[in-house]
Amino acid sequence: MRKLVAVSLMFAAAVAAAAVAQEATDPYAAVDAAWLHRSDGQKDGWADPAVAKRIDDTARAALKAHPGELEAAWRALRAAYFVGEMSATTRDDKQAAFAQVKPLYDRFWPVLVRHVEQATGERFKHLDPAQQARALADMPGAKEFVFWSAACWGKWGLAYGKWKAARQGVARKVRDLAEIVVAMDESFEFAGGHRILGRLHEVSPRIPFITGFIKRSLALENLKRAVEIAPQYGQNQLFLAEAEHDLGTKAEQENAPQRLKKLIESAPLPGYEIEGASTRREARELLASWEGK
What we know:
Layout: H1 2-25, H2 27-36, H3 49-65, H4 70-87, H5 91-98, H6 101-120, H7 129-136, H8 142-160, H9 162-167, H10 170-184, H11 188-203, H12 216-229, H13 234-247, H14 250-265, H15 273-290
Helix pairs in contact: 1-2, 2-3, 3-4, 4-5, 4-8, 5-8, 6-8, 7-10, 8-10, 8-11, 10-11, 11-12, 11-13, 12-13, 13-14, 13-15, 14-15
C-alpha cells in the first residue's frame, strides 16, 4: 500500500513538473493555466490582485512572443476584459484595461477583413454578417478574436462614456462584431453574441444619424434568446431581468425581481465561480435598487 501511495505521489509530482516545464516553454500554456485559476482567491466576484496580474502578465508575454498571431491577440483581449471587469474598481483603472482593445483591434481586424475579401472576392462591407462569418470559419482564432473585441469595445464604451463611444462609432463596431459572432456560432461563450447585442440595444443612447440602428425591442429579443440557449449562465439571466424591468410588458416587469431572486440563490457554475459571484453581487445590488433599499 505504501509503495502504491509513493508511486502515486511520484506520478503526480512528475505531471506537475511537466506542466510547469510546458508553461515555461509555451506562452499559450501559461496563459491558459492562469485563466483556469482565475477564480482562486476571489471575494464576492472580485479577483485576487495577484491572480489578475498573472492573467495579464502571461497574456502580454504570449503576445510579445507571438506578435502576429490571432491566438495571442484574443487571449490578450480576454485578459484585458477580465482585469477591467473583475479587478479594476476605479474609472481610471477600467479605462486603462479596456484601452488595450484599440491597438489590438487596429492591428488585427484588417487581417480578418483581407481574409474575407480574398475568400469571397467581394468587399467586406458589401457582405452581410452571415457571409462574413462563413468566410472566417476556417481562420483559427477568428471567432474568439471577434467575440472578445466586441466584449472589450462594449466595456470601453461604458468606461469612457456611452455618448463619447456612440459618437466615435463604437456602438456600431460592437453591433457588427456581435452579429458576426452570432452568425458563426450563436452558442459561443454561453450565447455571448446575443448577450452583447441585447445589452447594446438596451443601454446605448439613440442618436439621430449615428446610432439610429439601436432598437429597444432587440434588447429583449436577443437576451431572451441568450437565456433560451444558455439559461445556466447567470449574466444572461441578469441582463434579461434588467431588460424586462425596464422595457418589458407588465407581466415581464413583475417577473423581473423573481428572476433576480432565483439568480441570487443559484449555485455557481463549475469553472465559472468568479463570474457567478460577480453576477450574483450585481443582482443583489440591482434588486436592492428596485426595492428602494
